[in-house]
């Protein structure tokens, strides 16, 4: 695979935007490596043994990107920025679906004295992180440096999840007492 310049990718994106399917054929191998790198970075934050694999995440994101209508690709950064958002949304949707499966009556019941020993699943963390990022996005739609925002929001999301667990433990303790 040859190394391509950002200008070449931008030109192919613009051509594809204008309906040139040959540009899409040339673009696909050029963006695959970067999409795989993005997916690997997203998957690194997931729990060990995650069912979804990096290649599956790349494929799902790619299908959503090429089937997206009414988008005008400005440049390479715009394309990969949306690709990163799509990957995050795929993982969040996956986490929500997994959490939904586990919801049926299996509520965590922990005595208050043991609440500080309770662990939390990364899926709950990921969903809380996504909620925090969506709230931030509504407040400031011009933020371009999502990596910094995600890092800061992840810490806040973990704190929120722990507060929720402690609140549940307190409520359960008062219910059984």
Characteristics:
177 residues; single chain; mainly alpha
Give the structure's gist in a few sentences.
The protein contains six helices and no strands. It is mainly α.
Assembly status: single chain
Q: Structural class of the secondary structure composition?
A: mainly alpha
State the end-to-end CA separation: 66 Å
Overall residue-averaged pLDDT value: 76
How are helices and strands ordered from N to C? Answer: HHHHHH
Total number of beta strands: 0
Helix % is: over 70%
How many H/I helical runs? 6
Low-confidence stretches: none
Label the overall shape: elongated
Radius of gyration: 20 Å
Strand content: under 5%
The main β sheet shows up as: none
Topology:
Blueprint: H1 6-17, H2 21-44, H3 54-66, H4 76-102, H5 122-139, H6 146-176
Would you write up a description of this structure?
The protein is an all-alpha fold and 177 residues long. The chain is 71% helix and 0% strand. The chain has 6 helices and no strands. The longest helix is centred in the last third of the chain and has 31 residues. The protein starts with 5 loop residues before the first helix and ends with a helix. The mean pLDDT is 76.
